[in-house]
Amino acid sequence: MKPPIEHIKLSSQSKDQLIRLKRDTGIGNWNVLCRWAFLLSLADKTRPVRTDPKTDSNVEMSWKVFCGEQENILKALFYLRCQQDNIVTDTDRSVEFRKHLARGISTISNRTKRHSIATFVESVNN
């Protein structure tokens, strides 16, 4: 099973949200925050908004960097979600991945308890 996207580039809005999250939580790696955001979005039963997020920032990472050691798990969870949402083409999967990532970053960014790693994790779990 190939990755849904080889190269991940974020919108300037997502970049700004991640900068605030890095500052507020002390989590220094984009990929860790993005991974958590992506999983949070996958856990949401609704589909993300139907627009393809912009890729107008300078924040970029490869699929391997995004996943870290969790590549097989993240890929399996994403493909399962695509199957549930009847998303079958590679192009549609790529767009859906970007929508999930953008929604997850926005969701985490909008949470109010972000002042330490512990309160950040607590707010994501609620």
3D structure, described in words:
The protein is mainly α. It has one domain (7-125): DNA sulphur modification protein DndE (Arc Repressor Mutant). Helices cover 61% and strands 5% of the residues. It is built from six helices and two strands. Strands 1-2 form a two-stranded antiparallel ribbon. Helix 1 packs across helix 5 and helix 2 (30-43) packs across helix 5. It starts with 6 loop residues before the first strand and ends with a helix.
Short overview:
The protein has about 130 residues and is mainly α. The protein has helices at about 10-25, 30-45, 65, 70-85, 90-110, 115-125; strands spanning about 5-10, 60.
Measure the end-to-end span: 32 Å
Contiguous low-pLDDT stretches (5 residues minimum) are none
Strand order of the largest sheet: 1-2
User: Helical content, roughly?
Assistant: 55-70%
What is the gyration radius calculated from CA atoms? 14 Å
Secondary structural class: mainly alpha
CATH second-level architecture: Orthogonal Bundle
Overall geometric form:
globular
Report the average pLDDT across residues: 89
Largest sheet: 2 strands, antiparallel
Name the helix and strand elements from N-terminus to C-terminus, one letter apiece. EHHEHHHH
Q: Can you count the beta strands? A: 2
Task: Tally the helices.
Answer: 6
Provide the domain count: 1
β-strand percent reads: under 5%
The CATH class is identified as: Mainly Alpha
